């Protein structure tokens, strides 16, 4: 029961944070992609399936609220959950370097994939111009990457309150070891 409560609160919290408080947290139109950080957190700490499912639902909600291509974010967040989850066993999710690196690559994959989708289906892309690197876009990636370790820290505390320690993934790390 606590696990279900955790995932429901997790989903609601990040939807509210991204969609309703984004305008208050932005500096000159730039604010972090909290949903992307949440998906990477789930992929690293809970595994591929949790990240894929949560990414799908986050993408669906975001697509419903946006004027962009319906399904674009569903595909991208699901793919990011899959890819990061695939590499999760190789990294220690508690290391800030791992968090920063994974969120950075997830941002790049998101930008490339969403640009590709908008290039294929340009009629629904609104004001989005595919494959154009802008100052604001680069700054958004940087802010998202830099805030990721703090968000991971808070989420680890919340997960510890709701989920038993036995449900945390037990694994050996091949690239980055604890300690």
From TrEMBL:
Topology in membrane: Multi-pass membrane protein
Keyword Cell cycle: no
Location(s), subcellular: Cell membrane
Transmembrane stretches, start-end: 6-25, 69-88, 100-122, 142-163
GO biological process per UniProt: regulation of cell shape
Domain of life per record: Bacteria
Keywords, sorted A to Z: Cell membrane, Cell shape, Membrane, Transmembrane, Transmembrane helix
GO cellular component, one term: plasma membrane
UniProt-listed Pfam families: MreD
InterPro entries: Cell_shape_determining_MreD
Keyword Cell membrane: yes
Similarity section: Belongs to the MreD family.
NCBIfam families listed in its UniProt record: shape_MreD
Name used for this protein in its record: Rod shape-determining protein MreD
Organism from which the protein derives: Endomicrobium proavitum
Gene responsible for this protein: mreD
């Amino acid at each position: 029961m606590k696990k279900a409560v955790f995932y429901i609160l997790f989903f609601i919290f990040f939807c509210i944070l991204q969609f309703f408080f984004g305008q208050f947290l932005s500096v000159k139109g730039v604010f972090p992609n909290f949903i992307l950080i949440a998906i990477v957190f789930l992929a690293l700490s809970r595994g591929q399936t949790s990240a894929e499912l949560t990414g799908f639902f986050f993408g669906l909600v975001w697509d419903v609220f946006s004027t962009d291509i319906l399904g674009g974010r569903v595909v991208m967040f699901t793919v990011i959950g899959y890819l990061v989850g695939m590499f999760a066993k190789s990294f220690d999710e508690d290391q800030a370097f791992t968090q920063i690196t994974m969120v950075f690559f997830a941002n790049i994959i998101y930008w490339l994939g969403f640009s590709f989708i908008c290039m294929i289906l340009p009629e629904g892309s609104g004001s989005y111009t595919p494959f154009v690197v802008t100052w604001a876009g680069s700054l958004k990636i940087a802010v998202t990457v830099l805030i990721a370790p703090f968000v991971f820290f808070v989420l680890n505390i919340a997960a510890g309150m709701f989920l038993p320690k036995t449900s945390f993934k037990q694994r050996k790390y091949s690239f980055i070891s604890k300690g």
